[in-house]
Amino acid sequence: MTALHGRILALDLGDVRIGLALSDELGITAQPAGCLARSGGRSDLKAIRVLVEEHGVSRIVVGLPLLLSGEEGTRAQGARETADRLRRTLPGIAVELWDERLTTAEAERVMIADGVRRKRRRETIDAMAAVLILQSWLGAHPED
Fold first, then answer.
1. Which residues lie below 8 Å from residue 111, measured CB to CB, with a gap of 6+?
2. Is the dihedral of CA 122, 131, 9, 89 positive or negative?
3. For residue 77, how far is the Cα from the chain centroid?
4. Number of domains, the chain
């Protein structure tokens, strides 16, 4: 069970921000953990390392933005490169990619249904997308 091995951090990689979500200690639910403003490769990795250490993270799930056809585009390649850098930077942490097709659109739909104003949606959509990525991963791995 996940609880014995630490929390899980999900990343929704955007051009401007990285959406963050953390599992609860039992590995059952995902909660938003805010956004990280992108400032460049090493700075981003350092900020993620701090989150991993602060929250006892044992696994990172990186959203893989596949095209609707299931093929990989340039954004998917960027996610793969980020995952590889994370593996090198955090050798004791499992890093895997997870299909994130339509998570941002779904996050926006949920926030609109909840009456969240447009400005607030822009500020929180990446974290909500990360929650959806993590909840999807958790649902597919109930005993990991």
1. 120, 121, 124, 125, 128
2. negative
3. 16
4. 1
Structure tokens at 35: 């956004």
Look up residue 68 and give its two tokens.
């609707």
Give 78-114 pLDDT, tens digit per residue.
999 999 999 999 999 999 999 988 677 777 777 788 7
| Residue 22 or 143, more confident | 22
CA atoms within 13 Å, Cβ hemisphere of 121: 15
Separation CA 140–CA 144 (nearest Å): 9
pLDDT of the residue at 4: 47
> 133: domain range?
2-140
Give the residue from 99, 123, 101 showing the smallest Cα distance to 111: 123
Say which CATH number the domain at 70 has.
Answer: 3.30.420.140
Task: Output phi, psi for 26, to 5 deg.
Answer: -90, -5
Give yes or no for a contact between 56 and 33, defined as CB atoms under 8 angstroms apart: no
pLDDT tens figures, 25-50: 888 999 999 999 998 889 999 999 99
